[in-house]
């Protein structure tokens, strides 16, 4: 009877459950993911060679006694310029050694002072040179009349070997003068505590909290025209999406001991957690679906508007549907649930396992049961598509902003260039559509020297 009255009065028939979209009582999840930024510095061997020459004495006085012969030695040894060169994975060095003296007759010495360096970084951000030196003398004889020659080689080589520990200490002190490596680590650590607003969403901030400071031991690089050692300094931070009316405040934690391990220096690897607003997805779905008309049982069916909300791991769509009858149009609200997922074939967010909710199905039976046709569900599944290019462009802007903040706060020491941003996964968490984005790029070599000047 109600239907007859409605048709006679010329009204539009509405069939709906009266159910509203669910509102998520839970707050937006605070998502955090580990990210890494690494700096790379090339230290020319020439700089290390200069420090080694400056800290190694150029001559040594010899005042000793040949006990077996009761002969006193007087003289001096001189070295030439120390030259560094690659020696496998280590750094080799060599210098000529000459000397002369009397005992009581004159004596002369010729030979080579050589050894290796294997710089390593300690947890306190100081560099140990691990200098190992030894001498090899070819001429070191005391020629006495009427007696066999007396070799001075063992005595003088021992004297030079005894200089190695003090030479190592002086070189280590010179390399670490001013604690430049620790100062750079402290700067990177401090500047990595950042808060950057997200452009794609109001009242949302990308917060970076460093968790570890990583240093890689120096590696010899002979590919360039001028041999050098490369050193990596990296930071691991948790990136967290925080939803707040005001920008969060961060307290800078104390610089932790260095974590020593190999890293791919000069790289940026950011993992950015995002939340895709259901309303944004619904707007795009509506745009794609309202432009088409579907034929069901000789009736033209068009979806006019879609609203969306999340519940647990499901996205609920409230679809306003208009069916064209020859006598009267009919409108209904269809509630459909589905699981958002990442479709790699066309790089988009789609819904799978679509189904009409039980409440809607009961209300629509009879009057508009044809709206429950699998064809309509299939149609929504095919057309309800959100291209990832939109999210990737927004994520790129957010990461670029974060990188710009790092460059500014580090006074140019961290110059990152983001070359690739992509969405890696899509899912539901606590009723929200969670999108995992990653960004890769390069970090320019630090232009400032990592070793002190002369």
What does this structure look like?
By secondary structure, the chain is an alpha+beta fold. The chain folds into 2 domains: 12-44 and 178-454, Uncharacterised protein PF07273 family, DUF1439 (Bactericidal permeability-increasing protein, domain 1); 58-162. 22% of the residues lie in helices and 46% in strands. The strands form 4 sheets. Strands 2, 12, 13, 14, 15, 16, 23 and 24 form an 8-stranded mixed sheet that branches. Strands 1, 17, 18, 19, 20, 21 and 22 form a 7-stranded mixed sheet that branches.
Task: Describe what is shown at a glance.
The chain is of the alpha+beta class.
How are the SSEs placed, and which strands pair?
Layout: H1 2-8, E1 13-15, E2 31-44, H2 45-55, E3 59-66, E4 71-79, E5 83-87, E6 90-102, E7 106-117, E8 120-121, E9 127-128, E10 132-142, E11 150-151, H3 153-161, H4 164-175, H5 180-191, E12 194-197, E13 204-221, E14 228-243, E15 259-260, E16 267-276, H6 278-289, E17 294-296, E18 299-311, E19 314-324, E20 330-343, E21 348-356, H7 358-364, H8 374-383, E22 386-387, H9 388-409, E23 416-429, E24 432-443
Parallel strand pairs: 1-20, 13-15
Antiparallel strand pairs: 2-14, 2-16, 3-4, 4-6, 5-6, 6-7, 7-10, 8-9, 10-11, 12-13, 13-14, 16-24, 17-18, 18-19, 19-20, 20-21, 21-22, 23-24
Protein name: DUF4403 family protein
């Amino acid at each position: 009877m109600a239907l007859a009255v409605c048709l006679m009065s010329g009204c539009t028939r509405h069939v709906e459950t009266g159910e509203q979209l669910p509102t998520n009582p839970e707050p937006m999840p605070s998502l955090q993911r580990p990210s890494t930024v690494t700096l790379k510095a090339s230290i020319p061997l020439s700089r290390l060679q200069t420090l080694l020459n400056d800290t190694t004495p150029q001559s040594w006085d010899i005042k000793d006694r040949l006990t077996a012969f009761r002969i006193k030695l007087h003289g001096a040894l001189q070295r030439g310029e120390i030259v560094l060169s690659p020696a496998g994975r280590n750094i080799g060095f060599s210098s000529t050694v000459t000397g002369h003296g009397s005992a009581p007759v004159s004596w002369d010495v010729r030979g080579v002072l050589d050894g290796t360096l294997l710089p390593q970084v300690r947890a306190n951000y100081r560099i140990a040179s691990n200098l190992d030196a030894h001498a090899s003398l070819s001429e070191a004889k005391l020629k006495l009349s009427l007696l066999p020659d007396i070799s001075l080689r063992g005595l003088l080589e021992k004297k030079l070997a005894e200089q190695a520990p003090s030479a190592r200490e002086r070189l280590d002190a010179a390399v670490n003068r001013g604690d430049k490596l620790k100062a750079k680590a402290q700067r990177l650590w401090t500047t990595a505590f950042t808060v950057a607003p997200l452009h794609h969403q109001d009242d949302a901030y990308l917060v970076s909290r460093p968790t570890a400071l990583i240093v890689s031991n120096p590696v010899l690089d002979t590919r360039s025209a001028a041999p050098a050692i490369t050193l990596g300094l990296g930071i691991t931070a948790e990136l967290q999406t925080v939803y707040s009316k005001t920008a969060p405040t961060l307290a800078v934690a104390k610089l932790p001991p260095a974590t020593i391990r190999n890293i791919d220096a000069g790289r940026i690897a950011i993992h950015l957690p995002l939340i895709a607003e259901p309303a944004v997805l619904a707007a795009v779905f509506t745009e794609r679906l309202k432009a088409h008309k579907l034929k069901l049982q000789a009736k033209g069916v068009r979806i006019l508007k879609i609203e969306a909300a999340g519940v647990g791991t499901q996205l609920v769509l409230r679809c306003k549907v208009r069916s064209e009858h020859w006598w009267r149009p009919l409108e209904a609200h269809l509630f459909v649930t589905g699981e958002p997922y990442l479709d790699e074939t066309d790089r988009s967010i789609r819904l799978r396992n679509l189904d009409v909710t039980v409440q809607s199905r009961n209300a629509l039976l009879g009057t508009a049961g044809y709206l429950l046709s699998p064809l309509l569900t299939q149609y929504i599944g095919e057309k309800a598509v959100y291209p990832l290019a939109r999210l990737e462009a927004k994520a790129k802007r957010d990461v670029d902003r974060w990188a710009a903040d790092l460059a500014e706060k580090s006074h140019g020491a961290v110059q990152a260039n983001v070359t690739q941003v992509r969405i890696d996964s899509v899912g539901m968490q606590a009723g929200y559509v969670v999108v995992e984005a990653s960004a890769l790029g390069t970090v320019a070599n630090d232009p400032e020297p990592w070793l002190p000047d002369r």
